[in-house]
Amino acid sequence: MKLFEYMGKDLFRAYGIKVPEGQVAGNPQEAVTAWQAVGRPVVIKPQVLTGKRGKAGGIRFAGSSLEVADAATAILAMEFGGQKVDKLLVEEKITIVKEYYLALTVDGAAKRAVLIASASGGMDIEEVAEEDIVTRHIDPAVGVMPYLGREVAGRLGLTGEPLKQFAGLVVKLYRAYQAKDAELCEINPLVWTGEEFIAADAKVTIDDDALFRQPDIPRVEEKTAVEKTAADLGLAFVQLDGNIAVMANGAGITMATLDTLSHLGGAPANFLDAGGGTGTEGTAKALDLLLSIKPRVIFINIFGGITRCDDVARAVVQFTSTREVNVPLVIRMVGTNEEEGLRILQEAGISAHRVMAEAAAEAVALAR
Amino acid sequence: MAIIIDENTRVIVQNITGRQGAFHTRQMLAFGTKVVGGTAPGKGGQTVDDVPVYDTVDQAVRATGADASVIFIPAAGAKDGAFEAMDAGIKILVIITEHIPVSDEIDLVAYARQKGVTVIGPNTFGIVSSGKCKIGIPSNHFFVPGPVGVVARSGTLTYEIAGNLMTSGLGQSTVVGLGGDRAVGLSFVEVLAMFEADPATKAVVLIGEIGGNAEEEAARYIAAGMSKPVVGYIAGKSAPPGKRMGHAGAIIERGKGTFAGKVEALQKAGVQVASLPNEVPGLVRNVL
User: Fold this and answer.
1) Which residues of chain A have a CB within 8 Å of the CB of B159?
2) How confident is the model over B83-129, as pLDDT tens digits?
3) Is the pLDDT of residue A11 over 60?
4) Do B111 and B148 belong together in one domain?
5) Which structural domain range is residue B164 located in?
6) Beta-sheet pairing, B92-95 with B68-71
7) B209 located within any domain
8) SS3 B41
9) Do B110 and A249 touch (CB under 8 A)?
10) Total count of domains within chain B
């Protein structure tokens, strides 16, 4: 779960990391009030969950109430990657002597957290040359001690006071990262003002699987309405652009189903992993969800293991006989109790297949 | 021969009295797995399908001589259960549980390395050495002994491909599910090396997916001198960037872990990559 910048900064502040002084505003009046509270020239930033706000012209500087109100009005009317702007962060404009990059994240290949730092801050880390990036994997049994921060600082070319301050900052950032089950804590840019380091931005992502033990972290909703409904039902769902609604059981086979449809010239409308052991009720809820995205055809791909084909078949027949289903269903079914499942479907006049590619081809044809 | 587990592996089931634990204990026994015990704190002395239940893994290991354990403990308690097993001397740990916090996974994988424990998962279907031992949840009828080693990140897709292989008359030596999460115990590279050394394995099927760089590392290993042929399939060709496709690991982030990059890396290493899952058996036949 991604946090908005101001939430990330609240978190950093709580762990002793310096952030610019500022306030959140929801309209131009509040922005002016925030500017007055800061009492200095400010930067005004949209609170959206996408990067590249600056490149899209969404970050403005202002030094008078008129400028603040104008900038706030303009930014609140913008959209970033389809996201509307509900909130602005109005904060002091800080003196920049040099910009750095500092982040902690998960490296799945190394099976460890990794610290990433660079003296080329302010730009996308992907655009920084490999040799200008310092990375250190973190042994979970050791954690981050100040020496690690000093070592990284030294490699970034820091000396004296900045080196010592940087080391302390790294320790604090890891403490926040660990305590809050973050999977990303990124500060870009990390600004050296000539006197101290200030986190001018904050990108924090919390591990979804750890939210159960993080009651103090505010909840941020990034999903579409349909995706949210699916999440409430415990289904893994992602909305896509096509017109063939898809339901399968298992993340890998669901992806393979989408790939097969695309390979045959079709366009999937969604990713829906109904998981293992899909029962009657679960199947009906998943089908309701698929109907709500108004597809041309619904394609169900079941590989029975724990999931039993006859259970799914009965659930589908029950669903079609009690609901008005005005799109064709194409079903592929193999595995546990497939004979019984196929018989139930055929008796109900629903197209049923054993071979995935054949079923996918029919779904693609029906969607045309 | 097979890799990691065989007919001599002695298995305990952690949370054996739970719904999944009890069901799969029965399935594993039916497969022929030597399930010698189980644990459920506070329920020591009971039995599940004649398998004795112990309060702790330590008690279970001392009483049964178990060397492997399979964890069916809900996410919040899975780390505790994994450490308990490793401290009790378990050497092969299969963690079925999904949605374990990634920092817990990092902790337990690091401890396993220190203790010399092989971890399968988390968020895995398990591991099957056909005709010998199954530790995990796949249906028993997908597996017949044969020359093909299978290593995958994903469950049902593996059954699909194992089923296709079986229909084509191709059995498997061992089928390994690495797990769908980001920080899992084994990598493709480690399992490929085991298959390379296993006399029963004549060819390997690698089932990958978008996200991470495990397939690219596998390609480097294969190119560096793996002698046995490898056939690949990568799921997620049509997945948009930034959207997590079910698995925690299946996401294209910052332009990394793309389908095209993985396929290109594997092909450069001499791997035949199937466009669709049903092409896998044909490609395996060609290289055997």
Assistant:
1) 253, 303, 305, 335
2) 999 999 999 999 999 999 999 999 999 999 999 999 999 999 999 99
3) yes
4) no
5) 144-287
6) parallel
7) yes
8) coil
9) no
10) 2
On whether both B35 and B157 belong to a single domain, the answer is no
Q: Residues A146, A195: one domain?
A: yes
Residues A165 and A247 in one domain: no
Burial A67-100, CB ≥16 within 10 A → b, else e: bbbbbbeebbeeebeeeebebbbbbbbbeeebbb
| A101 catalytically annotated | yes
Q: Compare all CA atoms of chain B with the CA of A256 and give the residue at the minimum distance.
A: B235
CATH code of the domain in which A80 resides? 3.30.1490.20
Burial class of residue A354 (count of CB atoms within 10 Å of its CB; 0-12, 13-18, 19+):
exposed
Asked if residue A287 has pLDDT above 80, the reply is yes
Are A271 and B239 a contacting pair at CB < 8 A?
yes
Using the structure block, give the residue that is written with the tokens 């799914």: A312
DSSP string, B42-109: T-TT-EETTEEEESSHHHHHHHH---EEEE---HHHHHHHHHHHHHTT--EEEE------HHHHHHHH
- The C-alpha of A344 sits at a distance from chain B's nearest C-alpha, in angstroms, of 22
- Given A5, A91, A186, A338, the catalytic residue: A186
Looking at CA atoms only, how far is residue A3 from chain B in angstroms?
15
Read off the CATH number of the domain in which B213 is found.
3.40.50.261
A206 and A300 belong to one structural domain: no
- Quick one: A362 and A263 in the same domain? yes
Please indicate, yes or no, if residue A322 is contained in any of the structural domains.
yes
* Nearest beta carbon to residue A209 from set B99, B243, B275: B99
Verify that B174 and B107 share a domain, yes or no: no
- Which is it for strands B34-39 and B10-14: parallel, antiparallel or unpaired? parallel
Residue A232's alpha-carbon distances to A83, A223, A288, B91, B172, in angstroms, are 22, 11, 14, 38, 39
Vertex B142, ends B137 and B143: CA angle to 5°? 95
Q: Do B156 and A250 touch (CB under 8 A)?
A: yes
Number of folded domains that form chain A: 3
Whether B56 and B154 share a structural domain: no
Is B237 within the bounds of a domain? yes
| Contact (CB<8Å) B277/A213 | no
Mean pLDDT, chain B, rounded, equals: 95
Q: What is the DSSP code (8-state) at residue A21? A: -
Q: Is there a single domain that holds both residue B61 and residue B98?
A: yes
Mutate to test the interface with B, among A124, A306, A334 (most CBs of B within 10 A): A306
A70 plus A188 within the same structural domain: no
A256 to chain B, minimum CA–CA distance in Å? 5
pLDDT digits (tens, 9 = 90+) for B37-48: 999 999 999 999
pLDDT digit string (tens) for A155-165?
999 999 999 99
Q: Does the ipTM surpass 0.90? A: no
Report, as an integer, the average pLDDT of B237-251.
85
* Domain containing residue A193: 98-213
Within this chain, do residues A276 and A201 fall inside the same structural domain, yes or no?
Answer: no
Q: Considering the domain boundaries, does residue A119 fall inside one?
A: yes
Contact of A139 with chain B, judged by CB distance below 8 Å, is answered with yes
